């Protein structure tokens, strides 16, 4: 048996981490971001086994894939099966594109489809893995819904609440510096308090006037005030802002922008590797019936 699913990448414009004593269903992040047409496709096969085993290949190479394995284990509990996963990622990891979430979510959706489990179980398992391993907070929920979103309340629905900002845009991404370890930042209590304060402010302001323009202006403010961006990233954003709207991908040494697409590609290509995509309006989905 074989299942295939796609999960969009996701860029967080700004965020407020929320860890609830009630557990991962209520934990996550408030904030805003954009689901991307570039993401992860996972092909999953299941065979009977004497003990549980999960093997993962990413872009053709064996991978420890801790988030994906944790999510799949959470989904199937103690079932004795061998799960084989082949995931292809369109974008680099640890650059603020939500690739660990997209890889895990596409895998759990494909497996849930194979085992005739509800899609909600797949979303829950991937979200649980990201929160537990501190690799992300709001990406799974945002990727599952698609579009340009405001995460009003943290966590999984019905506790978590999202609103959409309508619009379909070309999105230009640029990877500028080395990988940024999300876990390191999410484990730094002092930095987390600072991020949470600015993230709460930006979410509140965006809800008062929800528009793409306001999202980008608040994202740029969040980037400057949290001091998460280095000098080159800040310079690239400033240059891109002359031809559109741009900010830093949270959390990565990378930039996302919309505006004059060809000019933005030209400007940003002088800083690093450029990817062009669009807003993914549909969210994570099974691609093919088995």
Overview of the molecule:
This protein is of the alpha+beta class and 290 residues long. The protein has one domain: 2-Layer Sandwich (Ribosomal Protein S5, domain 2). It contains 9 helices and 12 strands. The chain has helices spanning 66-76, 99-114, 119-133, 139-145, 182-186, 189-208, 212-226, 231-240, 261-269, and strands at residues 2-18, 28-48, 53-58, 61-62, 81-89, 148-153, 161-165, 170-175, 244-248, 254-259, 273-278, 285-288. The strands form 2 sheets. Strands 1, 2, 3, 4, 5, 6, 7 and 12 form an 8-stranded mixed β-sheet that branches. Strands 9-10-8-11 form a 4-stranded antiparallel β-sheet. It is globular. The mean pLDDT is 95.
């Amino acid at each position: 048996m074989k299942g295939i699913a796609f999960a969009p990448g996701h860029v967080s414009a700004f965020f407020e981490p929320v860890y609830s004593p009630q557990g991962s269903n209520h934990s996550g992040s408030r904030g805003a971001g954009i689901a991307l047409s570039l993401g992860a496709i996972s092909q999953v096969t299941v065979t009977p086994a004497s003990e549980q085993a999960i093997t993962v290949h990413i872009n053709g190479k064996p991978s420890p894939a801790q988030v994906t394995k944790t999510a799949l284990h959470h989904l199937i509990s103690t079932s004795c099966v061998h799960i084989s996963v082949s995931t292809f990622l369109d974008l680099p990891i640890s650059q603020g594109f939500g690739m660990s979430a997209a890889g895990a979510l596409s895998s759990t959706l494909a497996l849930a489809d194979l085992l005739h489990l509800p899609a909600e179980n797949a979303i829950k398992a991937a979200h649980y893995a990201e929160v537990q391993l501190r690799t992300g907070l709001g990406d799974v929920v945002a990727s599952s819904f698609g579009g340009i979103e405001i995460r009003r309340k943290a966590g999984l629905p019905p506790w978590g609440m999202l609103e959409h900002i309508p619009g379909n845009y070309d999105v230009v991404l640029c990877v500028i510096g080395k990988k940024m370890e999300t876990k390191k930042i999410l484990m730094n209590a002092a930095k987390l308090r600072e991020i949470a304060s600015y993230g709460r402010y930006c979410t509140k302001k965006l809800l008062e006037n929800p528009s793409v323009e306001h999202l980008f202006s608040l994202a740029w403010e969040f980037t400057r005030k949290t001091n998460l961006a280095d000098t080159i990233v800040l310079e690239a954003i400033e240059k891109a802002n002359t031809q559109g709207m741009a900010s830093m991908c949270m959390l990565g040494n990378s930039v996302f922008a919309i505006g004059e697409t060809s000019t933005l590609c030209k400007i940003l290509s002088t800083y690093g590797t450029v990817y062009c995509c669009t807003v993914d309006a549909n969210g994570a989905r099974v691609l093919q019936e088995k």
